[in-house]
Amino acid sequence: MQTDDGRARCLTEKAFPENEFLILPVISHDREEIEFTALYEQRLGKRSMYEIGVPVTNSGVHEVEIAVKHALFSSNTSIFSLGFETALSQVTTMFEPFISAGTMLRDWYVQTQIKYGIPADRTKADRTFVYNTYVGRDTSQAPDTWTIGVELNGENHVVAVTPQVRKGLTGTGALAASIGATVPIYGPWRQTGKFDRPEKEGVKWVGYLLWEYLEPLRARK
Q: Which of 81, 145, 158, 185 has the fewest C-beta atoms lying within 10 Å of its C-beta?
């Protein structure tokens, strides 16, 4: 089984099970909406993992996310996983089965994920269909290299693109950071015939600070 399915990306979850701790910010262009998610990922054997996420918004903590994932197939260049996430919130519980897959096309990483959200109480939340696809490549073979990429992100009727860059912060790549901008390209506002976008569909700054906590920060001599 390969050791990784490619560099992490801003919104598309990787198919490979990992031992990582991440801080993921989402900040609207006018800073009215700010969210930071603390995400802990722990492998269970070679093919499985669980993760716990706690989003913190302007008004505090209102949700806890718990997920499990298992790799059904993997090779030196490709991987396919199934997973299930539960989001426990003050509004209602969301059940979210998902599939993730990744592959290498020469020097390019390709990663995709499809998730379907089912609320426990349909009167308090709608069902969601989320899909994300990432394409990117490293600029060198070094663990602390720059990685450039772009994502296609969709949720129900809203579609966006997220160009991004990533940089390893240590010689081993155990610490890394990424920044990108999610730009809506299609949404319900198109039906009005106006070019004004609702505030909730505006540009958002996204990214992450990643720590592979079982990897050394410095290369062994």
A: 185
